[in-house]
Amino acid sequence: MISLLALPLWLGAKSVAEIDPALQDRYYGLLGELRCLVCQNQSLADSDAGLAQDLRDEVVKLLEQGASDREVLDFMHSRYGDFVLYKPLVQPKTYLLWYGPFVLLGGGALLMILMLRRRKTVSDTPLSEAEQEQLKQLLDESQDAQTKDNDT
Amino acid sequence: MSRFLIPAAIFIALVAFLAIGLTLDPRKVDSPLIDKPVPQFSLPRLKDASQVFSSDDFKGQISLLNVWATWCFACRQEHGVLVELSQQQQLPIYGLNYKDERPLALRWLRELGDPYTATAFDEDGRVAIDWGVYGAPETFLIDQNGMIRYKHIGPMTHEIYQTKILPIVKQLQETRI
Predict the structure, then answer these.
(1) Which residues of B touch A40 (CB under 8 A)?
(2) Domain spanning A7-87: which superfamily?
(3) Strand order in B138-142's β-sheet?
(4) Which of A18, A55, B37, B77 has the smallest number of Cβ neighbours within 10 A?
(5) Is ipTM > 0.85 here?
(6) pLDDT digit string, tens, across residues A8-19
(7) How far is A80 from chain B (nearest CA, A)?
(8) Which helix (H) or strand (E) holds A29?
């Protein structure tokens, strides 16, 4: 009974051994780049869903017909949309995704340069007379406070 | 004051993005086939294997194509709705029987009623791949020129028919005149 139920699962499924060894690396590479639409957190290589099996067979068929990797990805993309590709296309919708990190990095670098420069100008200028007077006063005050603390 | 303003603004923006994300259904994947011509195909019909159902059969009228199978639980759920819609005779409904067995599919139509003007029998699911089908039931709205105008994933309901499909049908009918 159990074997009867399992029958449709392996019927029509192509075993890995049947795939031309020369194509196997590309086959596995492509399966890793394609997302299964049924089990959405799995790649086509990982998924056990019936559709994933059909799509794996389709990838084999295309590779055997001499399709390039790009053509296989385009085949899936034209049918199932952006979602099947793990690596998003560069298009206006994804500019933020692709270029956002560089914008943040550039902004951060700019901010850092500005802050460093400001700090440098502060440390370079010698204290004016008024400032030195103020400094002396502050030092005296803290010394007074310390001696007072020691007395008590 | 302003040193709290910037983190607060970033926090609010983050919350807004997450709130939008929560309302999206990850199972609804936009089809790239919308506003494209139907994929070319030619399949035997379910009821008479000697007859052919092809992409040309969509030309000249606005119609629905419903992808279904007897093993698909939600298809049973929506079937009554399709039968009722077919009785209203607003649009012809075509069927694409997906990865099914012919005797089971025929029995299903005998027992539950047949809303389909014609049903194509896609035994190995190859044509469904060209249609970008990833989970039956799915329903496509096709215009009089054979262009796909809308795709609904999941069981058809009267509400979806009224609110999503009919407005597009009305628009399509107006542009023709």
Answers:
(1) 26-27
(2) Cytochrome C biogenesis protein (1.10.8.640)
(3) B118-122, B93-98, B63-68, B138-142, B148-153
(4) A18
(5) no
(6) 444 444 555 577
(7) 5
(8) helix A21-33
How far is Cα A72 from Cα A65, in angstroms, rounded to an integer?
Answer: 11
Domain that holds residue B85: 31-176
Is B40 within the bounds of a domain? yes
Shortest Cα distance, chain B CAs vs residue A136, angstroms: 32
Q: Is residue B23 part of a domain?
A: no
CB A14 within 8 A of CB A60: yes
User: Is B136 within the bounds of a domain?
Assistant: yes
E strand or H helix that includes residue B148:
strand B148-153
Between CA B172 and CA B149 the distance in angstroms is 9
**Cis status of the peptide bond prior to B137, with omega within 30 of 0:** yes
Q: Give the CATH number, domain containing residue B51.
A: 3.40.30.10
Determine, for residues B32 and A77 on separate chains, whether the beta-carbon distance falls below 8 Å: yes
Task: Give the sign of the dihedral formed by CA A125, CA A130, CA A131, CA A132.
Answer: positive
The per-residue pLDDT for range A98-126, each reduced to its tens digit, is 999 999 999 999 999 998 888 776 666 77
CA distance linking residue B20 with residue A48, whole number of Å? 31
